[in-house]
Input
Amino acid sequence: MMKPNSILGSYLFKQAVLSFLFVLIVICAIIMMVDMIELLRRTSGKHDISIGFLVEYVLAKLPETVDKVIPFIVMVSTMIMFWRISKNNEFVIIRATGVSIWGVLMPVLLAVFVIGSLWVAVINPISAKLYEVKETLSYRLSTNNPNAFLFSNKGLWMREGKEDNTIAIINAKGLNLKSQVLWLNDLSIIEIDEDMRVKRHIEAFVATLENGNLNLKDVHIYQPGQKAEIVNSMTYPTEMNIQRIRDNFVDPEAISYWNLPDTIDFYETSGFSVIRHKMRYLSLTSLPFLLVAMVLVAGLFALKPSQRQGGVLWMIILGIATGFTVYFTSQVISAFGLNSYIPIWFSVWAPTIVIASISISVYLHKEE
Output
């Protein structure tokens, strides 16, 4: 078997990396062009939106989109590389020297595994930071406020302990930060005792978080066995702060791979659901192996003794169809994992294991 550090192995390793970078640049350019066209359409007639803002938004959104299509990028780049070495008869020459198909694949698999590892270790933390920037810019675009800062458009759910073994469940349907003051819309506070009985229910039209207190406006207070009380304003002490709320609203995509384990531990301790975060962590961990599996699939379609046999168009069609099949199948399996129908680890690793197993079986059959 050819060693990856041999001259031929180094050549194949280099070709795999260069092909990946070429396809990555092309795909990024296409994504940015499509996003810019869509943004220009959405902002037509808004003269207060500068071209600099649009460019910043497109660049901030780019890593999120590329993260979703990175398996396709690897598959397409590898197919191009394999097609090129087959067209130039390099594959025939390599095989004529007695190198097995695994000797040809090994340097490419190593190159892709290194790319996947670097993507998780280096690119992902950058992508996580830009995800937060993209969310804020998107909110500013929708509100026409260039200084707006978004915490969440999905609502707030927090739990904190009070005196006398009381637990307060705090819910707000919307949040917004204005002039360093956090505003909470449609606030609801439910106080329960250790036996899970409701002691008091407070509803407010709006509230502000300042100096460790929630300043409630237009308040309705409900207590068991008592008439509802209506007050114009009320101060409610809380342990909430802006940083804690910010942490509560961090999407898994906005957390780097290295910070996900601590975040998962924090959420589990606080009683929050961590299924999405665990799936994100496992997906990133499995990414290098998934990319390796996509290389194996690409080799089945693109590695031929000679491209004079024809069928290049069918190779491209079947390769793309296989890629989409893998993608949609993995999405369906992930949905089962998110809904706890199957174990999370299985929903993440199953597509990679199945693809790799089928591909290896086909290669072994061809070698025989």
Q: What stands out?
A: The first strand starts at residue 156 and ends at 161. Residues 101-143 form the longest helix (43 residues).
